[in-house]
User: Fold these one by one.
Assistant:
Number 1:
Amino acid sequence: MISNELKSQIQGAYSRFLEAKSLKPRYGQRLMIAEVAKVLGDIAVDDEGRRSGEPAVVAVEAGTGTGKTVAYSLASIPAAKAAGKRLVIATATVALQEQIVFKDLPDLMRNSGLNFSFALAKGRGRYLCLSSSTCCCRKATPRPPPRSCSRRRAFASRWTRPVRSCSPA
């Protein structure tokens, strides 16, 4: 359950954002913020801080320009910080990634009072697929991979679960 302190922090950030931009609250945006915050606040964790329950899913559908990015960011950034976690926002296009990183998040930081950092990782072609990497390693000749490959795989494996299949997607 989301704490009252976190709820107040999210509500305050939303109020500051609206006031700084001379905007009025949007009913749908408030519902999105509340639902994202509720779902993130309900994530059960074990003693080591790892998720111990079912995956947390929120599906939000709304038209262009309705404030979805503001809504999920205002809820998820404070929730992630409170949980001591990193937040990853994935999009289907590089254009949307760039809009979020170069426009939406700086605007949110400037106007909401939230303090956070962010970075951009562009395009599907630039990501390491752990499944393919694992399968290639299994089939490869028995020689150690280059040190840079080992470092990348070690970094990437901290963000993922073990590979279950070597079949292409």
Note: The radius of gyration is 19 Å.
Number 2:
Amino acid sequence: MSSVNSGILAGLIGKGIQASRTPAMHEREGDAQGLRYLYRLIDLDQLGLDLDALPSLLDAAQHMGFTGLNITFPAKQAIIPLLDELSSEARGIGAVNTVVLKDGKRVGHNTDCLGFAEGLRRGLPNVARRRVVQMGAGGPAQPWLMPCSPKALNACAYSKLSQAAPRLWRTISTHTSAASVPW
């Protein structure tokens, strides 16, 4: 990320995020790296805003010199039409959790998949992924399935109430012969 006045300015856009530990984590790591790192919460609830404010918030972040934004509930999908580019992961998952603001462009990424894959690699290094069961079809479901190799997926269980389940299933079913099991 680029620096502004010898520092890095980043933030988190989401709803109900006042208890987030992210600012402290980012700023502490910046200090450890010898960087002045400012991380700001942009809480839609606290500001009395809804998703219609995303275009203005992105414009303001760019004008104020933000180098990037983390995106969380409920904006991970709503932000996509406002971006200039998407990484292949964000495009495949259909959600963005990181926006890099550089050279006047807004580039969306999704790091959930990479983070989950690394967790699997470290926590379960020798476990075969021949059979995987996904419980739930909400926001995290697809990024978590990708590192498991959808070809290995034997069943996808989801809530009958989930509006996300059909979309997730359409994506996954193109890569697997798995069964969908409503519960």
Note: The radius of gyration is 18 Å.
Number 3:
Amino acid sequence: MKKLPQKIVVFGPSTVYGKNDSEGGFVARLRKLSEQENNNNIVFNLGISGESSRELLTRFLLEVPPRKPNLIILYPGLNDILRRGGKDSTRLVEEEETINNWTQILSSAQSLASVIVILPLSFDETRTTPLVANYYYFLDDAKIHLCDIHMLCQQLQILAVEVPFSSDNLDEFISTDGLHPNSKGHELILQKLLEVIL
């Protein structure tokens, strides 16, 4: 049976950080499995809540090379498509910049290790418009974002993992805020990752 890579780094926003999961999210679950397999294995959770591609780009090459990973896992999340104020306000990071940022991040990642991208997850728009105060996440923006990330992965020949959250099963896998995975959702993300890693 194939073994987990010895050193894994995982980047992304609050879902990577482990928001809304009592077990610390899919990365903490991956770390637990990895350490059970070999106590010399290391999984670095480098997720930062609220982070956009703009912030990730500025720190990516500072964080990765010193850790010498065998595998880089990236979850783009949805913060780039955040609109503060409603439909008529601009995205936190406009589409062209998002594409440019992720092109640089993914190209840099490829030069350092094997790469897996988890495609952006679906959510319940009725609960994210707004999510809190003036924070709005719209499904139309999310569909464009997902297509852009998927296109980049195809162009760069990077493995993209789709986690099957759909309108039929959202309540089963997302938390009450309508945006972030719940514990069952994090477990599903982990299982989909393991299918392509092992």
Note: Strands lie at 7-11, 42-45, 71-74, 83-84, 114-118, 135-136, 159-161.
Number 4:
Amino acid sequence: MLFLLVIISTGILATLTMTAFSYGLSFFTHTNLREPQLINLLIEKLPFQPLKIGREHVLGWVIHILIGIFFVLFFKLGIHLLHFSTTPITGVLFGLCIGVLGIVGWEIGFSFHPNPPKINRLVYYLHLLLAHVVFGSTVVFLINKGV
């Protein structure tokens, strides 16, 4: 039970930290790099979709946080099975790896979507890589602090 609580709390906190980074970068660059909003836009623009949701709908946040929790579970299982240490370098490398996975996932989502949001994908993907480094570093920090 404690293992699950650590996974969930770390996933939520790391995802919120990553998302705060994305919102801050969005503010300073005047570009929409906000993952929960883009998730909502993808859902809203689906044809024959009965839900009418806006950019700030809770669904985008729930999906984004659930993905973060899944990545933390993956990381914790990796620590347990592969016996690697949780250092700042581990956090950065983990962030880069899941950042690449995130980019692939978003590219698949955008490519197969009938009406994807109009964004500069290169800028979004570069940001996504950095945001996941923030995520991975936060995960390692929280695990090392015993959260």
Note: Residues 2-29 form the longest helix (28 residues).
